[in-house]
Amino acid sequence: GDVAFGSASLLSADQLNLTANDAELNTNVNGLVGTINGNLTLTETNGLTLGAENLTVNGNANISVSAGDLNGTGVLSATGNSVVLDVAGSIDLGSNTTEQVVAENLTASAGGSITMNVNVGHLAANAAAGDLVITETDGFNVSADLGEGGIFAAGNSLSLTSGGDIAGDGDITANDVTLVADAIDLSDVDQLIEAT
What we know:
By secondary structure, the protein is an all-beta fold. The protein has strands at residues 3-4, 11-20, 23-36, 40-44, 48-57, 61-65, 70-72, 76-87, 91-93, 101-110, 114-127, 132-136, 140-142, 150-162, 165-168, 171-180, 183-184, 193-195.
């Protein structure tokens, strides 16, 4: 069935293993794994680690970390769906050599830095106070329609590496920009690629 904790409820544990159709939770946990057959909405109060047993979401996943970082060695898989990560600290999901976030649409926002290995179709990201390093498996679009409309690491370094092509219509802004791909097409008339 479904799992729901309202805004006034807080689920506290060391490790949380979820199995549900849909889940909406406010948590204070260290680790998260499980399988959600529908959508996941989770607000974590004090940092979150994706466990090695992985987190599979067969719908959309929206994970907010209001204090602390999002990290771990596990895989967040929402194949064909959307993932939104909104983290007060940094996002470090680049520990594994394989992808740690799998989705059609990924929006990632961090108060610090972002390091991720991913397999996505469309990507938007913003590292507000740190470098941004994303390695993608087989090609993706920089999306103007997700998040803040592109990929940003203002005042810091930004590196995007793709095993396929990099395309799309979103903006890219950072102090230093590195793009590595089989082919790069970021030529939309309204698009801005800026190294500040």
